[in-house]
Amino acid sequence: MKFSELFCPTLREVPSEAETVSHQLLLRAGYIRKAGAGIYSYLPLAQRVLRKIETIVREEMDRAGGQELLMPIIQPRELWEQTGRWDVYGDEMFRLVDRHQRHFALGPTHEEIITSLVDNDVHSYRDLPLLLYQIQNKYRDEIRPRFGLMRGREFIMKDLYSFDIDEEGLDISYRKMYDAYHRIFQRLKLQYRVVEADSGAIGGNESHEFVVLADTGESEIVYCENGDYAANVEKAACVYKDEGNDEAPLEMQKIHTPGMRTIKDLVEFTGQPEQRHVKTLTYYADGELVAAVLRGDRELNEIKLKQVLGCRELYMADDAAVREACGAGFGSLGPVGLNIKVYADLEVAGMRNLTCGANEDDYHFINVNPGRDFVPEDYVDIRNAVEGDLCPVCGKPLQATRGIEVGHIFKLGTKYSEAMNATVLDQKGQAVPLVMGCYGIGISRTMAASIEQNHDENGIIWPMPIAPFQVIIVPVNAKKEDQMSTALALYNQLQEQGVEVLLDDRDERAGVKFKDADLIGIPVRITVGPKALQENQVEVKKRWENEIQHVAIDQVVDAILEIIHQG
Ligand code: 9G3
Question: If you measure from the C-alpha of residue 428 to the centroid of ligand 1, how many angstroms do you get, rounded to a whole number?
Fold first, then answer.
């Protein structure tokens, strides 16, 4: 491809709305353009990268026994009603109505469609296992589309669904996908971690996330240096070790705290750090009002709370209901004398002389001691993990880091097949529900995540396997006959060897061409200049190194092939 013919509109200025490196570079380097909030066109360079990522994903899905198909983006409402999910996903679903007033969703995911498809056409255990996948646009009306391709409203996903006759079959399918995902992210040259994740929301009982390490990522994970445990902070089990708190319990007192509603207010007012306060949050659990109590500096984990309570529905109580039931508003609640069930986080048991609301507006208690001043229903694990928490496996302090979720695999079990009555006949001739798994990779997000990991101040540095072009040839002066003919000869020779080459034939200053080559991130640059040509040489530079190599013209093709094979 000649640069002069390439549609690659680079920008000098970074649009101010781009907050992350990948968003900035994708715009600046002419890879994407915004069509609307969270909706982007992929320009030719981006499309080439996406194709390469998709090819790697396809190869590994096929190798693991997957078969590619393509399902509709437009999905009938009736299928989503069978699983009850038409109502669960309110505004996040793009909905449309046809001329006959029939309702549809733009597919946010395809569990419903594929379960119905397999149910209709698969009848026997002999037809299983079945691993079906597609690579396709998905639609989710995010409240805050952000970070360019990282959280778009239209994005490309690979989604695979496994169908087995029983749990043992599912375990095997899951393992195949788990291994395939490792191969994929290794081939993509990403630095990533696999973490245990929660499958709560979608249903099912085992789940792993593949997280690309990046400070800008939205996923927070904890891991043990030993390598024996890694989980996202929502899933991670918080173990509490009772180390014995020998602080002497003081006499509980009620204090006047006018207008103090938040832990921050109280920290300032009492001079006591957050860790000596507890907060009391109220929820409706299947209609019953309950209180969750945890240390002032902790985050409640609603998924854990839901599991602990064993309830189907959990939502936050409103101020009016709480006031009526408890006699005080949100900012003045506490576990002492509270007339609803109290569930305290594990570590609350070890706190002494803590501060909490007095269940009376504008009053708090100080020197409250669990066990003496209140006894909860139970002490339970209901908070998010943080750095320094103890590894549930070996007891060492956990490390925390951030990342971008690029893959997620779930064991679904029979949640969808039961809801949709999707059964097959087993060995005994009995109809049993299909046992399912689902496995996603965010293709467009993976492109962005790769840039977050592979860039410098001059632009993108693509890993060889997903670079839009492997090599760029830059004649220093395109008007000089000898430079251009050497460049063209190399261009042809490399193409004959199957190398993807960009020839910068533009009549621009060398500096401009180097800047663009760096910005768009081509891994190898060959510079054809006057000095080197006198000695029958060209310059070879790797995008990720500073040194320039001088290579004899008749050895360049081999040298380039060598670099490509290494990468
Ligand atoms: C929806 C909407 C948003 C959603 C979903 C449904 C997330 C939804 C979870 C998944 C799970 C797996 C297949 C590939 C692997 C991941 N957001 N999820 O189900 F209607 Cl609006 O998508 N799906």
Answer: 34
